Amino acid sequence: MKNIVILDGHTANPGDLSWAALEELGHLTVFERTPSELVAERAANADIVLTNKAVLDAATLAKLPRLRLISVTATGFNVVDLATAQQRGIAVCNVRGYAANAVAQHVFALVLALTNRIAEHSQHTSAGGWATSPDWSYTLAPVWELAGKTMGIYGFGQIGQRVAEIAQVFGMRVLANHKHPERDQRLGITFVSFAELLEQSDVISLHAPLSPENQGIINLDSLENMRKNALLINTGRGGLVVETDLKAAIENGLIAGAGLDVLVEEPPKDGSPLLGLKNCIVTPHNAWATVEARKQLITESIENVRSFLAGIPRNLVEI
User: Fold this and answer.
1) Catalytic: 300?
2) Residue 285: active-site member
3) Which of 112, 241, 254, 266 is most buried by its number of CB atoms within 10 A?
4) Angstrom distance (rounded) from CA 138 to CA 2
């Protein structure tokens, strides 16, 4: 019987889902969270490891002689040293596309929170603002419609495409900046340069993976080229944005506001310049975490293990 170890199971399954199907495949040990200094110890006798954010670097992998499969319970696999895994004959797989609906939904939750100011109006009403108002209807600040506005999407993979579909339902014009426009053409989507995306969009939503080429691509220069009424939405990676520049842009009226589900440091133990900022909403990297998405993530992760044990590995990550 194979030893299966989950290093950080809490985020995917805080207790409302089940690992039972994985228990049928081997001897299962689940750790809710694993600090870096305990990764090697806890995975020492594992044949198969599931990890989300627990890092399996070269030094750690050298201490795991039995390990044959790493199943990453996420799409991103930067927590694994792929070159070392390959050298040691360790297969690596991930899960793709499980959270497209969830993240796209969160994008528009952020957009609507900023445009309709639901929280502010609810809080004002609860505090007696409506009861003492001389008018039967009022707004605390201008509210504008999405219909007729332009959604700019940076990165046009599965999530970006789902965002585009929803934007079109709202009656928005959709622009996209993408590495493979010829491959991913969609009806009603106009592919443009990054500069054109900045200049023409009322809402810009970030969905590209982080790379050395786009680290800090949203900076003071790019923010200065956005429309003053524009909103920035980031459910991708915190490193796409220079946070001090975004704070300055919001405070100085270069853009209207931002909705962020990701930050450069997560959790932001040393604080973030964007926390508590007016016209800036920050959520704790939970856009992906609907019950349905987490259930799909667990199901796909278990299938990765099952297929590997059957000798037909799936969702393999290649160097």
Assistant:
1) no
2) yes
3) 241
4) 64
Q: What's the CATH fold of domain 100-282?
A: Rossmann fold (3.40.50)
* Beta-carbon count within 10 A of 8 CB: 20
- Asked if 306 is an active-site residue, the reply is no
Instruction: Report pTM.
Output: 0.93
Domain ranges of the chain: 3-98+291-309, 100-282
- Assigned CATH for 3-98+291-309: 3.40.50.720
Catalytic pick among 10, 266, 292, 314: 266
CA 253 remoteness from chain centre: 27
The reply to whether 3-98+291-309 and 100-282 are identical in fold is: yes
Instruction: Please pick, among 106, 173, 237, 294, the residue that the annotation labels catalytic.
Output: 237
The per-residue pLDDT string of the chain (319 residues; one tens digit each, 9 = 90 and over) reads 899 999 999 999 999 999 999 999 999 999 999 999 999 999 999 999 999 999 999 999 999 999 999 999 999 898 999 999 999 999 999 999 999 999 999 999 999 999 999 999 999 999 999 999 999 999 999 999 999 999 999 999 999 999 999 999 999 999 999 888 778 788 899 999 999 999 999 999 999 988 899 999 999 999 999 999 999 999 999 999 999 999 999 999 999 999 999 999 999 988 899 999 999 999 999 999 999 999 999 999 999 999 999 999 999 998 7
Distances (CA, A) of 220 to 34, 81, 231, 233, 234: 37, 33, 15, 16, 16
Candidates 68, 186, 285, 306; catalytic one: 285
